[in-house]
Amino acid sequence: MRVCIRPLGIVDASILDFLQASLAKVFGECEVLLPGKIPQEAYNPIRNQYNSTAILENLEAKKGCQILLGVVEEDIYAGNLNFVFGEAELGGSRAIISLARLRPSVYGMKNGDLLKLRALKEAMHEVGHVLGLTHCPNPNCVMFFSNSILDTDAKDWKYCDACRKKLLERGIKVRLDE
Ligand SMILES: [Zn+2]
Ligand SMILES: [Zn+2]
User: Mind listing the pLDDT tens digit for each residue in 146-160?
Assistant: First the structure.
């Protein structure tokens, strides 16, 4: 399976490289595409945030990419939620994640490898939705719903055995060894 990462706007290259290497191991192939733009209509000046659904709908499919993952640095929201870490089309082909609320500096901590790991967790989670997985009740599973960054930090970056089984039933094989 080929996952393509589309940075939207300026995105930390070290994070994109880490996601590319990690997702390539898990899904088989991963490529970072040329950066695109965040659509202006996605910006909500009252909230000073971007609407993730509007960004998602504007993500242009690319030939050869089964999954398209948009990555933004900007803060995003959806529906009546104050913010979201990401959004995906369940069983579709597109997903988006935001790094805005993953940065340890936002919580008064030093940035470092923690940001990479958090970005990978959010990417795995949203790609999981694209692959048809819904939220998982197992708090260690990456498909567990993150209400806050604490949930994200507490869970693993992997799909649990039950979620893996669901993927296998759909003919999707993933590699989750370290
Ligand atoms: Zn989710
Ligand atoms: Zn699970």
Answer: 989 999 999 999 999
